[in-house]
Amino acid sequence: MCGRFVSPSAEAIAKELGIQTPKNYHQSFNLAPTQLVPTLTSPKRLEFYRWGLVPSWAKDPSIGNRMINARSETLAEKPSFKRALAQRRCLVPAQGFYEWKVENKTKQPYFIFHHDRSLLLFAGLWEQWKSPEGEIIHSVTIVTKEAQGNLKNLHDRMPAILSPQSKEAWLSPEIDLHSAQQILNQTAAEKIDFFPVSTLVNKPVNNSKECIEPIAKVEVQPRT
Predict the structure, then answer these.
(1) Domain at 5-212: CATH code
(2) Catalytic residue (one of 2, 90, 127, 211)
(3) Is 2 an annotated catalytic residue?
């Protein structure tokens, strides 16, 4: 799954995506569900959508708290995702993301990133919800798939990470459901690396560069 990630810096967005961010944009080192996350709805259109998909038919936006991820294997079958897969695909750019692994009976967080530190492009779906009072919420979910490569050592799921060559196809309104599913099936993780980080990241209120700094793992010796 993907439950916490690091947003790109303004410099990385400008350099790799060719998009200028708003003057009040700040990189987050610990983005959590329900917060606003950078979202590409077209190759050159950067929006900020609430993390946690709220379908248009939802009675209230609280449903989004349970829909931060969408399994790629069942997107075309689930009423919550099928229409968005056909009409409202997006990308969520990230500097990296976090995953937790149980080690020595505790959960050790890891920071996961592209080996050359370039941006990761998560496949996503977005929706627009309108309350009876007229409030409009744009929301997004991150598509996940079975973990690949060395990420299997951390978790059984991972975000569907698209290559720069696939991003325009994923965002194109011209492709059908079958083609969209094929793009997701082609995502890989052979250039992904990770290292352990501080448990600071366990709390979303902690939002500093220290969250992504590597730490030395302490080996717990068995009692004799």
Answers:
(1) 3.90.1680.10
(2) 2
(3) yes
